[in-house]
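ok so dumb question maybe but i'm new to this and my supervisor (M.) told me to 'just get the structure for NADH2 dehydrogenase' and walked off. so i did the thing. is this what she meant?? sequence i used:
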Amino acid sequence: MRWTRILLKETTGLTGLAVHPNPRPALISLYQKTLSELSDIPETALYRQSISAITSHRLRIVELTEDVSKIEHEIAAGQMEELIQQAQDELGLLEKVKGWKPWEALEVPEPEKQWQYTFSENKGSR
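this is what came out, is it supposed to look like this??
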């Protein structure tokens, strides 16, 4: 099945995104690396919980499905090459998030009522 895909798919149709010769193993590797790297982030962090859930779900699909077109359909987030690009981007973001440490307390407390908004209606004439 993989060989017919390679013979049939000459382009992704997306400028700058070449056809990957063997996308399934590449995607599995990226998802596994993402899950491994998440271990450096506290389990209580919302970012870790969200990315872990999405990545685990996608990894399960890719591991259980051989047919690339079925993987693309099941994940419903683009072609395999796009999924690879998304996974690479997430790994890059993950490294930045580790440095930012958004799960830690703020150095300076937020001002009182920072997240409360009041809206007043303009009762003037138009």
